[in-house]
């Protein structure tokens, strides 16, 4: 019995000659194979060996191939395993019935080895791609659930007024690669069917004229070049979703009761990604530029989730300040003096500290309110736009939870700069 193998093919055929012939051919082609002589044995065996693909004979004593396929597709644990029917009959009705039951393809006996191998490899690639998409979707679902829990804590402590905007930004970043993968799947399915139809012509010994005519109809030369590009593009889309998922995990990570070591740049970068939709260009202004000036920092002992909340508050406030500074200015005026947010980190080795500076070139903060910005419930935003809790909690996280310091520097009309000092190592508070 073969278990835990990559590209394992289960051959289900009551004819030992056919089964052994296929078994030897698949092994010689670098694929792992297992055999079952009946539908009953196959159903008992499949959950144990977890094959990547099943070659299923239609006409068998006891449970025939159609009933076996129906049972496989009714079981959640086996419903996603690709099934290719094998039969000596070429009845269209039987083929339609098999495909309707969930089979992905149909092979007519006697077999052409090259035809069998081409079909198996094609469906293995598609199956593995689908598995990877499902895995990434599950990881994304888990991350979104973790983010929801983090958001609940933020709402309880801060009544986070930007929550809806945050979720909208995440959805926007995820929708782009998801839509791209979904769109390409349509072409991949069409290309696959065209190739199957073309292989059928060879298998049915069609004339050279018919084969050439069909090749021209499906533009075979272009298809052969484009199909791998489409699969690679879908792979890139999946990887993009994975990158977003990892950034969300970084931002939404739950804090433990004690500080842990982390790379502060990861938290800053994940915050920028989540706010990316607010930074993009619109018909009113060019994009807000993010200027990163990162020093080579060691990991610091901290509560990462709380610091991510700090970065979110300050960067979101900087975007608000820039949008306010743009009121009454034309697109060209803004382009002449582009909006930017500069984020600088610096190691202060003699003091065992790091410095984080977040600076914008907005309107700045008037002197008369500069001393009040960290006060509880103080806000200059209109009713419904701010709670007055963001910077107060930011200061509490930096000073009380991390033993650090936060100050604001501002020149009216030139922008504002928040400077955060954090110890590299500190005892837990």
Characterize the structure shown.
The protein starts with 7 loop residues before the first strand and ends in a 6-residue tail after the last strand. It is of the alpha/beta class and 429 residues long. It has three domains: 8-111, 3-Layer(aba) Sandwich (Rossmann fold); 115-251; 260-423, Heat Shock Protein 90 (2-Layer Sandwich). The protein has helices at 16-28, 39-49, 65-74, 92-100, 113-158, 163-203, 208-217, 220-251, 264-274, 276-279, 304-325, 331-336, 367-370, 390-401, and strands spanning 8-12, 32-36, 53-57, 83-87, 105-108, 260-262, 289-293, 300-302, 340-348, 353-360, 405-411, 415-423. It has a five-stranded parallel beta sheet, with helices on both faces. The model is unreliable at 1-5, 159-163 and 382-389 (pLDDT under 50). The protein is elongated, with a radius of gyration of 30 Å. Helix 5 (113-158) runs antiparallel to helix 6.
By CATH, the architecture of the largest domain is named: 2-Layer Sandwich
- CATH class of the largest domain reads Alpha Beta
Query: What fraction strand?
Result: 15-25%
What is the molecular shape? Answer: elongated
Arithmetic mean of pLDDT: 82
Number of strands: 12
């Amino acid at each position: 019995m073969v278990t835990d193998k990559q590209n394992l093919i289960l051959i289900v055929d009551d004819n030992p000659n056919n089964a052994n012939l296929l078994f030897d051919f698949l092994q010689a082609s670098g694929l792992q194979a297992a055999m079952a002589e009946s539908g009953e044995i196959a159903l008992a065996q499949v959950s144990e060996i977890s094959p990547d693909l099943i070659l299923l004979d239609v006409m068998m004593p006891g449970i025939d191939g159609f009933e076996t396929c129906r049972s496989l597709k009714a079981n959640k644990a086996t419903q996603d395993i690709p099934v290719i029917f094998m039969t000596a009959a070429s009845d269209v009705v039987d083929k339609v019935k098999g495909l309707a039951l969930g089979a992905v393809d149909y092979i007519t006996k006697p077999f052409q080895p090259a035809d069998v191998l081409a079909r198996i490899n094609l469906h293995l690639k598609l199956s593995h791609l689908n598995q990877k998409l499902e895995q990434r979707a599950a990881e994304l679902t888990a991350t979104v659930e973790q983010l929801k829990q983090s958001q609940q804590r933020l709402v309880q402590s801060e009544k986070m007024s930007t929550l809806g905007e945050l979720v909208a930004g995440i959805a926007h970043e995820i929708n782009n690669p998801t839509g791209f993968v979904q769109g390409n799947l349509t072409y991949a399915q069409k290309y696959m069917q065209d190739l199957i139809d073309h292989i059928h012509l060879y298998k049915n010994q069609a004339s050279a004229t018919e084969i050439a005519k069909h090749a021209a109809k499906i533009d075979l030369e272009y298809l052969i070049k484009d199909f791998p590009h489409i699969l690679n593009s879908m792979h890139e889309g999946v990887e993009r979703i994975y990158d977003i998922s990892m950034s969300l995990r970084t931002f939404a990570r739950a804090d433990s009761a004690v500080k842990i070591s982390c790379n502060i740049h990861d938290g800053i970068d994940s915050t920028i990604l989540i706010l990316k939709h607010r930074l993009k260009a619109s018909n009113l202004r060019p994009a807000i530029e993010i200027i990163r000036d990162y020093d080579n920092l060691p990991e610091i002992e901290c509560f990462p989730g709380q610091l991510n909340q700090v970065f979110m508050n300050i960067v979101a406030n900087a975007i608000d300040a820039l949008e306010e500074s743009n009121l009454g200015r034309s697109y060209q005026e803004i382009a002449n003096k582009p909006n930017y947010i500069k984020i600088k980190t610096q190691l202060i080795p003699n003091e065992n500290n790091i410095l984080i500076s977040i600076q914008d070139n907005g309107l700045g903060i008037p002197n008369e309110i500069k001393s009040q910005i960290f006060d509880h419930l103080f806000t200059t935003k209109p009713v419904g736009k701010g709670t007055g809790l963001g910077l107060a909690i930011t200061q509490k996280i930096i000073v009380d939870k991390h033993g650090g310091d936060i100050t604001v520097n501002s020149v009216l009309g030139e922008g504002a700069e928040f400077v955060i000092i954090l110890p590299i190592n500190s005892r837990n508070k």
